[in-house]
Amino acid sequence: MTRENCVFTPDVPNDRPTIFIENKEITDFAAKIHASDASPEALERGKAFADEITARYVGDFERAGVDQMVHVTTFMLIDGMIYMTYYANTANSAENPLYQTARLAIRPKDDPDGLTILDIQSAGDECGGRPVEMVYDTIMARVDADTLMVLWTAKVGGNYYRLCRPYSISEGKLGGILVNRLKVGDVINDFSTTGISSALAANGIGCRKMFSDIGIMQKFTYRMENGEKWYYTGAYSGYMTMLIKSRDFVTWEYVSQPDFDCMSHWENTVTVFAGKIWYCVRQQPETPYCFLTCYDPDSDTWAKPVLIEDCQSRSDFIIWQDKLYLIYAPIDREHIGFVRVNTDDPAKSEIMMQAKMHTSCFYPFVQFFGDGLAMSYTVDRKHVRLAEFSMEKYVD
Hints:
By secondary structure, the protein is mainly beta. It has a domain at 21-55 and 206-356. Helices cover 7% and strands 51% of the residues. The strands form 6 sheets. Strands 13, 14, 15, 16, 17, 18 and 19 form a 7-stranded mixed beta sheet that branches. Strands 1, 20, 21, 22, 23 and 24 form a 6-stranded mixed beta sheet that branches.
Protein backbone atom coordinates (compact mmCIF):
# COMPACT_ATOMS: atom_id res chain seq x y z
CA MET A 1 0.00 0.00 0.00
CA THR A 2 2.86 2.34 -0.81
CA ARG A 3 1.55 3.54 -4.17
CA GLU A 4 0.46 7.16 -4.31
CA ASN A 5 -3.19 8.08 -4.14
CA CYS A 6 -5.13 6.99 -7.25
CA VAL A 7 -2.23 6.62 -9.68
CA PHE A 8 -3.18 5.01 -12.98
CA THR A 9 -0.56 3.12 -14.98
CA PRO A 10 -0.64 2.46 -18.75
CA ASP A 11 -1.11 -1.18 -19.72
CA VAL A 12 2.07 -3.07 -20.59
CA PRO A 13 2.43 -2.92 -24.41
CA ASN A 14 1.10 -6.06 -26.07
CA ASP A 15 0.67 -6.87 -29.75
CA ARG A 16 -1.03 -10.24 -29.30
CA PRO A 17 -4.77 -10.28 -30.07
CA THR A 18 -7.43 -11.19 -27.53
CA ILE A 19 -8.41 -14.85 -27.70
CA PHE A 20 -12.19 -14.94 -27.33
CA ILE A 21 -13.85 -17.98 -25.76
CA GLU A 22 -17.38 -18.63 -26.96
CA ASN A 23 -20.02 -19.31 -24.34
CA LYS A 24 -21.58 -22.73 -24.89
CA GLU A 25 -24.11 -24.77 -22.96
CA ILE A 26 -22.74 -27.32 -20.51
CA THR A 27 -23.43 -30.79 -21.91
CA ASP A 28 -20.96 -32.83 -19.84
CA PHE A 29 -22.00 -32.57 -16.20
CA ALA A 30 -21.83 -34.76 -13.11
CA ALA A 31 -25.38 -34.23 -11.82
CA LYS A 32 -28.36 -31.89 -11.71
CA ILE A 33 -30.04 -30.53 -8.59
CA HIS A 34 -33.54 -29.02 -8.84
CA ALA A 35 -35.61 -27.06 -6.34
CA SER A 36 -38.16 -29.86 -6.55
CA ASP A 37 -35.55 -32.23 -5.09
CA ALA A 38 -35.92 -30.57 -1.68
CA SER A 39 -37.21 -33.09 0.84
CA PRO A 40 -40.09 -32.35 3.24
CA GLU A 41 -37.46 -32.07 5.98
CA ALA A 42 -35.50 -29.50 3.94
CA LEU A 43 -38.67 -27.45 3.46
CA GLU A 44 -39.51 -27.61 7.17
CA ARG A 45 -36.01 -26.41 8.01
CA GLY A 46 -36.57 -23.61 5.52
CA LYS A 47 -39.72 -22.44 7.29
CA ALA A 48 -37.85 -22.32 10.59
CA PHE A 49 -34.96 -20.47 8.95
CA ALA A 50 -37.23 -17.80 7.45
CA ASP A 51 -38.85 -17.28 10.86
CA GLU A 52 -35.48 -17.04 12.60
CA ILE A 53 -34.10 -14.49 10.13
CA THR A 54 -37.15 -12.31 10.78
CA ALA A 55 -37.01 -12.74 14.57
CA ARG A 56 -33.27 -12.14 14.95
CA TYR A 57 -33.12 -8.88 13.01
CA VAL A 58 -29.97 -6.88 13.83
CA GLY A 59 -30.64 -3.75 11.83
CA ASP A 60 -30.74 -1.85 8.54
CA PHE A 61 -27.64 0.03 7.43
CA GLU A 62 -28.77 2.38 4.67
CA ARG A 63 -29.12 6.13 5.14
CA ALA A 64 -32.81 6.32 6.03
CA GLY A 65 -34.81 8.85 4.06
CA VAL A 66 -31.88 9.55 1.73
CA ASP A 67 -30.91 6.33 -0.02
CA GLN A 68 -33.41 5.37 -2.70
CA MET A 69 -31.57 2.23 -3.84
CA VAL A 70 -29.00 0.09 -2.01
CA HIS A 71 -27.41 -3.22 -2.96
CA VAL A 72 -24.62 -5.83 -2.54
CA THR A 73 -23.53 -6.23 1.08
CA THR A 74 -20.45 -7.34 2.98
CA PHE A 75 -20.19 -7.21 6.78
CA MET A 76 -17.83 -7.97 9.64
CA LEU A 77 -18.19 -7.96 13.44
CA ILE A 78 -14.97 -6.76 15.09
CA ASP A 79 -14.73 -6.05 18.84
CA GLY A 80 -18.43 -5.32 19.16
CA MET A 81 -18.59 -3.07 16.08
CA ILE A 82 -20.39 -3.96 12.85
CA TYR A 83 -18.80 -2.85 9.58
CA MET A 84 -20.98 -3.02 6.46
CA THR A 85 -20.26 -2.09 2.84
CA TYR A 86 -22.73 -1.57 -0.01
CA TYR A 87 -23.47 0.92 -2.78
CA ALA A 88 -26.31 3.43 -2.81
CA ASN A 89 -28.22 5.68 -5.18
CA THR A 90 -29.57 8.86 -3.61
CA ALA A 91 -30.83 10.40 -6.87
CA ASN A 92 -33.45 7.82 -7.86
CA SER A 93 -34.60 4.27 -7.19
CA ALA A 94 -32.72 2.65 -10.07
CA GLU A 95 -29.68 0.42 -9.81
CA ASN A 96 -27.74 2.81 -12.02
CA PRO A 97 -23.96 3.28 -11.63
CA LEU A 98 -24.20 6.81 -13.01
CA TYR A 99 -25.65 7.88 -9.65
CA GLN A 100 -24.12 5.47 -7.16
CA THR A 101 -21.86 5.87 -4.13
CA ALA A 102 -19.64 3.24 -2.50
CA ARG A 103 -20.36 3.15 1.25
CA LEU A 104 -18.90 1.93 4.55
CA ALA A 105 -21.39 1.89 7.44
CA ILE A 106 -20.28 1.39 11.06
CA ARG A 107 -22.28 0.90 14.26
CA PRO A 108 -21.99 -0.79 17.65
CA LYS A 109 -23.67 -4.19 17.66
CA ASP A 110 -25.87 -3.23 20.61
CA ASP A 111 -26.68 0.34 19.52
CA PRO A 112 -28.89 0.54 16.42
CA ASP A 113 -28.95 4.33 16.67
CA GLY A 114 -25.17 4.68 16.62
CA LEU A 115 -24.84 4.35 12.85
CA THR A 116 -22.04 6.21 11.07
CA ILE A 117 -21.90 6.15 7.26
CA LEU A 118 -18.81 7.03 5.23
CA ASP A 119 -18.91 7.76 1.51
CA ILE A 120 -15.95 6.05 -0.15
CA GLN A 121 -16.40 7.35 -3.70
CA SER A 122 -19.29 8.67 -5.77
CA ALA A 123 -20.02 8.96 -9.45
CA GLY A 124 -19.11 12.55 -10.31
CA ASP A 125 -15.97 12.58 -8.17
CA GLU A 126 -12.48 12.94 -9.60
CA CYS A 127 -9.84 10.24 -9.22
CA GLY A 128 -6.23 10.70 -10.30
CA GLY A 129 -7.22 13.71 -12.36
CA ARG A 130 -9.88 11.73 -14.23
CA PRO A 131 -13.68 11.89 -13.95
CA VAL A 132 -15.44 9.08 -12.09
CA GLU A 133 -18.32 8.25 -14.39
CA MET A 134 -19.78 5.20 -12.64
CA VAL A 135 -19.53 3.39 -9.28
CA TYR A 136 -20.64 -0.19 -8.69
CA ASP A 137 -20.04 -3.36 -6.60
CA THR A 138 -18.54 -2.52 -3.20
CA ILE A 139 -17.01 -5.11 -0.86
CA MET A 140 -14.65 -5.29 2.13
CA ALA A 141 -11.72 -7.37 3.37
CA ARG A 142 -9.72 -7.43 6.59
CA VAL A 143 -6.03 -6.83 5.90
CA ASP A 144 -4.76 -7.03 9.49
CA ALA A 145 -5.89 -6.40 13.07
CA ASP A 146 -6.27 -2.66 12.47
CA THR A 147 -6.96 -2.34 8.75
CA LEU A 148 -10.01 -2.96 6.61
CA MET A 149 -9.87 -2.63 2.85
CA VAL A 150 -12.91 -1.37 0.97
CA LEU A 151 -12.86 -2.46 -2.67
CA TRP A 152 -15.19 -1.34 -5.45
CA THR A 153 -15.42 -0.91 -9.21
CA ALA A 154 -15.58 2.44 -10.95
CA LYS A 155 -15.58 3.63 -14.52
CA VAL A 156 -12.90 6.30 -14.66
CA GLY A 157 -12.02 8.14 -17.85
CA GLY A 158 -13.90 5.63 -19.99
CA ASN A 159 -12.36 2.45 -18.54
CA TYR A 160 -13.65 0.27 -15.69
CA TYR A 161 -11.15 -0.21 -12.84
CA ARG A 162 -11.00 -2.01 -9.52
CA LEU A 163 -10.17 0.50 -6.79
CA CYS A 164 -9.56 0.09 -3.06
CA ARG A 165 -9.21 2.24 0.04
CA PRO A 166 -7.88 1.26 3.49
CA TYR A 167 -9.70 2.11 6.70
CA SER A 168 -7.90 2.29 10.06
CA ILE A 169 -10.05 0.83 12.83
CA SER A 170 -8.06 2.45 15.64
CA GLU A 171 -8.01 5.89 14.02
CA GLY A 172 -11.45 5.71 12.44
CA LYS A 173 -10.03 7.16 9.24
CA LEU A 174 -9.96 6.33 5.56
CA GLY A 175 -6.70 6.29 3.65
CA GLY A 176 -6.15 7.29 0.05
CA ILE A 177 -7.65 5.57 -2.96
CA LEU A 178 -5.45 2.94 -4.60
CA VAL A 179 -5.74 1.35 -8.03
CA ASN A 180 -5.82 -2.44 -7.86
CA ARG A 181 -3.33 -4.31 -10.03
CA LEU A 182 -3.66 -7.62 -11.88
CA LYS A 183 -0.70 -9.93 -12.55
CA VAL A 184 -0.94 -12.54 -15.30
CA GLY A 185 2.34 -14.37 -15.83
CA ASP A 186 4.98 -11.66 -15.87
CA VAL A 187 2.58 -8.92 -16.97
CA ILE A 188 1.21 -6.52 -14.34
CA ASN A 189 -1.48 -4.05 -15.42
CA ASP A 190 -4.01 -1.93 -13.63
CA PHE A 191 -7.00 -4.14 -12.77
CA SER A 192 -9.13 -2.67 -15.54
CA THR A 193 -11.14 -3.87 -18.52
CA THR A 194 -8.27 -3.20 -20.91
CA GLY A 195 -5.71 -4.41 -18.37
CA ILE A 196 -7.42 -7.80 -17.99
CA SER A 197 -7.82 -8.53 -21.71
CA SER A 198 -4.33 -7.30 -22.59
CA ALA A 199 -2.58 -9.26 -19.82
CA LEU A 200 -4.45 -12.45 -20.69
CA ALA A 201 -3.73 -12.04 -24.40
CA ALA A 202 -0.04 -11.43 -23.72
CA ASN A 203 0.06 -14.81 -22.01
CA GLY A 204 -1.96 -16.64 -24.66
CA ILE A 205 -4.93 -17.10 -22.30
CA GLY A 206 -8.47 -16.94 -23.63
CA CYS A 207 -11.11 -14.52 -22.41
CA ARG A 208 -14.89 -14.57 -22.56
CA LYS A 209 -16.73 -11.41 -23.55
CA MET A 210 -16.51 -8.56 -21.02
CA PHE A 211 -19.25 -5.94 -21.23
CA SER A 212 -19.92 -4.68 -17.71
CA ASP A 213 -18.23 -3.45 -14.56
CA ILE A 214 -15.49 -5.59 -12.98
CA GLY A 215 -16.66 -7.44 -9.90
CA ILE A 216 -14.68 -9.10 -7.13
CA MET A 217 -16.64 -11.45 -4.88
CA GLN A 218 -16.75 -10.63 -1.18
CA LYS A 219 -15.90 -14.02 0.33
CA PHE A 220 -12.14 -14.32 0.96
CA THR A 221 -10.57 -17.58 2.12
CA TYR A 222 -6.90 -18.47 2.08
CA ARG A 223 -4.42 -21.26 1.51
CA MET A 224 -0.76 -21.33 2.48
CA GLU A 225 1.64 -21.34 -0.45
CA ASN A 226 5.41 -21.40 0.15
CA GLY A 227 4.85 -20.17 3.70
CA GLU A 228 2.68 -17.23 2.61
CA LYS A 229 -1.05 -16.66 3.08
CA TRP A 230 -2.83 -16.19 -0.26
CA TYR A 231 -6.47 -15.07 -0.30
CA TYR A 232 -8.64 -16.48 -3.08
CA THR A 233 -11.83 -15.13 -4.59
CA GLY A 234 -13.68 -14.78 -7.88
CA ALA A 235 -13.58 -11.91 -10.35
CA TYR A 236 -15.91 -11.26 -13.26
CA SER A 237 -17.01 -8.92 -16.02
CA GLY A 238 -19.90 -9.92 -18.24
CA TYR A 239 -19.34 -13.52 -19.33
CA MET A 240 -15.71 -13.55 -18.15
CA THR A 241 -15.24 -15.23 -14.76
CA MET A 242 -11.93 -16.25 -13.20
CA LEU A 243 -10.11 -17.25 -10.04
CA ILE A 244 -7.76 -14.67 -8.56
CA LYS A 245 -5.59 -14.51 -5.44
CA SER A 246 -3.78 -11.84 -3.42
CA ARG A 247 -1.62 -11.36 -0.34
CA ASP A 248 -2.55 -7.71 0.29
CA PHE A 249 -5.91 -7.11 -1.49
CA VAL A 250 -4.22 -4.54 -3.73
CA THR A 251 -2.29 -6.61 -6.26
CA TRP A 252 -4.12 -9.68 -7.54
CA GLU A 253 -2.85 -12.64 -9.54
CA TYR A 254 -4.78 -14.55 -12.17
CA VAL A 255 -5.07 -18.24 -11.23
CA SER A 256 -7.40 -20.00 -13.67
CA GLN A 257 -10.89 -20.13 -15.18
CA PRO A 258 -13.23 -23.06 -15.91
CA ASP A 259 -11.81 -25.02 -18.84
CA PHE A 260 -15.09 -26.60 -19.96
CA ASP A 261 -17.94 -25.26 -22.08
CA CYS A 262 -20.24 -23.07 -20.00
CA MET A 263 -22.40 -19.97 -20.12
CA SER A 264 -20.96 -18.19 -17.08
CA HIS A 265 -22.41 -14.77 -16.37
CA TRP A 266 -21.26 -12.38 -13.64
CA GLU A 267 -20.87 -13.40 -9.99
CA ASN A 268 -18.61 -16.39 -9.29
CA THR A 269 -18.42 -17.24 -5.59
CA VAL A 270 -15.27 -19.01 -4.40
CA THR A 271 -13.97 -20.66 -1.24
CA VAL A 272 -10.90 -22.67 -0.25
CA PHE A 273 -11.76 -25.98 1.40
CA ALA A 274 -10.30 -29.50 1.63
CA GLY A 275 -7.31 -28.63 -0.54
CA LYS A 276 -9.39 -27.35 -3.45
CA ILE A 277 -10.91 -24.09 -4.63
CA TRP A 278 -14.69 -24.42 -4.75
CA TYR A 279 -16.48 -22.36 -7.36
CA CYS A 280 -20.10 -21.58 -8.20
CA VAL A 281 -21.35 -19.14 -10.82
CA ARG A 282 -24.69 -18.23 -12.31
CA GLN A 283 -25.17 -18.57 -16.05
CA GLN A 284 -26.91 -16.66 -18.81
CA PRO A 285 -30.72 -16.46 -18.61
CA GLU A 286 -31.05 -19.06 -21.38
CA THR A 287 -30.20 -21.76 -18.84
CA PRO A 288 -31.96 -22.31 -15.49
CA TYR A 289 -28.80 -23.59 -13.81
CA CYS A 290 -25.79 -22.21 -12.04
CA PHE A 291 -22.86 -24.61 -11.89
CA LEU A 292 -20.80 -25.91 -8.98
CA THR A 293 -17.25 -27.12 -9.61
CA CYS A 294 -13.84 -27.07 -7.97
CA TYR A 295 -10.29 -26.35 -9.03
CA ASP A 296 -7.31 -28.40 -7.87
CA PRO A 297 -4.34 -26.00 -7.70
CA ASP A 298 -1.85 -28.83 -7.38
CA SER A 299 -2.88 -30.57 -10.61
CA ASP A 300 -4.28 -27.47 -12.38
CA THR A 301 -7.53 -29.30 -13.15
CA TRP A 302 -11.25 -28.54 -12.89
CA ALA A 303 -13.91 -30.99 -11.75
CA LYS A 304 -16.89 -31.92 -13.89
CA PRO A 305 -19.62 -29.39 -12.98
CA VAL A 306 -22.82 -30.03 -11.07
CA LEU A 307 -25.79 -28.06 -12.42
CA ILE A 308 -28.00 -26.49 -9.77
CA GLU A 309 -31.33 -24.87 -10.57
CA ASP A 310 -31.23 -21.18 -9.62
CA CYS A 311 -32.75 -17.88 -10.69
CA GLN A 312 -29.55 -16.24 -12.03
CA SER A 313 -28.66 -14.71 -8.69
CA ARG A 314 -25.51 -14.35 -6.57
CA SER A 315 -24.51 -17.31 -4.41
CA ASP A 316 -22.20 -17.76 -1.42
CA PHE A 317 -20.29 -20.48 0.44
CA ILE A 318 -19.99 -21.03 4.18
CA ILE A 319 -17.88 -23.57 6.05
CA TRP A 320 -19.60 -24.79 9.22
CA GLN A 321 -18.19 -27.47 11.51
CA ASP A 322 -15.79 -28.63 8.81
CA LYS A 323 -18.48 -29.04 6.17
CA LEU A 324 -19.07 -26.92 3.08
CA TYR A 325 -22.45 -25.39 2.19
CA LEU A 326 -23.56 -23.47 -0.89
CA ILE A 327 -26.16 -20.73 -0.39
CA TYR A 328 -28.15 -19.75 -3.48
CA ALA A 329 -31.55 -18.65 -4.84
CA PRO A 330 -33.27 -21.81 -6.14
CA ILE A 331 -36.55 -20.34 -7.39
CA ASP A 332 -36.54 -16.54 -7.13
CA ARG A 333 -35.06 -13.85 -4.92
CA GLU A 334 -37.56 -14.57 -2.18
CA HIS A 335 -36.15 -18.07 -1.75
CA ILE A 336 -32.87 -19.29 -0.27
CA GLY A 337 -31.43 -22.75 -0.60
CA PHE A 338 -28.57 -24.42 1.27
CA VAL A 339 -26.82 -27.27 -0.54
CA ARG A 340 -24.60 -29.55 1.52
CA VAL A 341 -21.61 -29.97 -0.79
CA ASN A 342 -20.19 -33.48 -0.89
CA THR A 343 -16.51 -32.62 -1.27
CA ASP A 344 -15.56 -36.24 -1.97
CA ASP A 345 -18.11 -36.60 -4.76
CA PRO A 346 -19.84 -33.31 -5.70
CA ALA A 347 -22.42 -35.24 -7.73
CA LYS A 348 -23.80 -36.50 -4.41
CA SER A 349 -24.37 -32.98 -3.03
CA GLU A 350 -27.93 -32.42 -1.81
CA ILE A 351 -30.33 -29.75 -0.64
CA MET A 352 -30.15 -29.40 3.14
CA MET A 353 -32.66 -26.56 3.44
CA GLN A 354 -34.91 -24.53 1.16
CA ALA A 355 -36.73 -21.46 2.45
CA LYS A 356 -39.43 -19.11 1.23
CA MET A 357 -38.38 -15.94 3.02
CA HIS A 358 -40.77 -13.38 4.50
CA THR A 359 -39.24 -10.57 2.41
CA SER A 360 -37.21 -10.41 -0.75
CA CYS A 361 -33.70 -11.59 -0.01
CA PHE A 362 -31.33 -10.34 -2.69
CA TYR A 363 -27.71 -11.55 -2.77
CA PRO A 364 -27.38 -13.13 0.70
CA PHE A 365 -23.91 -13.03 2.25
CA VAL A 366 -23.19 -15.25 5.26
CA GLN A 367 -20.35 -14.66 7.70
CA PHE A 368 -19.34 -15.60 11.21
CA PHE A 369 -20.84 -13.26 13.79
CA GLY A 370 -19.49 -13.84 17.27
CA ASP A 371 -20.09 -17.50 18.12
CA GLY A 372 -22.71 -17.94 15.42
CA LEU A 373 -23.55 -16.79 11.92
CA ALA A 374 -25.32 -13.82 10.41
CA MET A 375 -26.63 -13.01 6.96
CA SER A 376 -26.68 -9.66 5.20
CA TYR A 377 -28.94 -9.09 2.20
CA THR A 378 -30.94 -6.37 0.50
CA VAL A 379 -34.72 -6.09 0.63
CA ASP A 380 -36.14 -4.90 -2.70
CA ARG A 381 -32.92 -2.92 -3.12
CA LYS A 382 -34.36 -0.57 -0.47
CA HIS A 383 -32.79 -1.86 2.74
CA VAL A 384 -29.37 -3.22 3.67
CA ARG A 385 -30.39 -5.76 6.30
CA LEU A 386 -28.51 -7.95 8.78
CA ALA A 387 -29.92 -10.85 10.81
CA GLU A 388 -28.43 -13.62 12.93
CA PHE A 389 -29.21 -17.33 12.76
CA SER A 390 -28.14 -20.59 14.39
CA MET A 391 -26.76 -22.96 11.78
CA GLU A 392 -26.75 -25.86 14.23
CA LYS A 393 -30.56 -25.92 14.11
CA TYR A 394 -30.56 -26.89 10.46
CA VAL A 395 -27.70 -29.33 9.97
CA ASP A 396 -28.03 -33.07 10.54
